[in-house]
Amino acid sequence: MPEHFMMSTASSGLLSPKMLGYWTGDHLHDLPDESGIYCVFRAAQDPETQEMRVQELLYVGEHRSARYGVEHNEQLDKWRAFLHPGEELWVSMGLCGQANRERLAAALINAHKPRFNGHSEFLEHFPFEETTVHIYGKKDKLQSIFTVYPQD
Question: Phi and psi at residue 23, in whole multiples of 5°?
């Protein structure tokens, strides 16, 4: 796991996941069966290049099995119904052990405020210590580096 996730030894407040690939809606069963966070995106054709590209972050989740977390999420049908014709559901995941998984997901939700995390306590409340997140890999529509501060 070290090649995909780092926790700084100098500061317990640095989380640095590598966001792995993109899996399309038809290939969610290929997501790694490993602990981590996952980001669900709306992808659409870029008018200039005609290539499919990430357009919007829809949801951030976490689970001990990213594949299970996505495939069995109660909002999966809502995400699909939200798409317009020609758009696709894309998912990226970052490996993260249980000790930091909720904290990392909470930081992403707090900083990005995804549309389908509307009922999350983490939108306006961050119950963890100051946390700096450095995301690398497949991070379209995600801030590369950001810090979230404790909020009551």
Answer: -110, 130
Q: Are strands 36-45 and 136-137 parallel, antiparallel or unpaired?
A: unpaired
Q: Which residue has 């993109």 as its token pair?
A: 22
50 CB-near residues (< 8 Å, 6+ apart): none
Measured between alpha carbons, how far is 118 from 20 in angstroms, rounded to an integer? 25
- Cβ contact 129:95 at 8 Å: no
Residue 67 and residue 104: Cα distance in Å, rounded?
17
In this prediction the pTM is 0.90
Q: Is 37 exposed, middle or buried (0-12, 13-18, 19+ CB in 10 A)?
A: buried
Q: What is the pLDDT of residues 56-110, one digit of tens each?
A: 999 999 999 999 999 999 999 999 999 999 999 999 999 999 999 999 999 999 9
Question: Which residue in the block uniquely carries the two structure tokens 């399309």?
Answer: 24
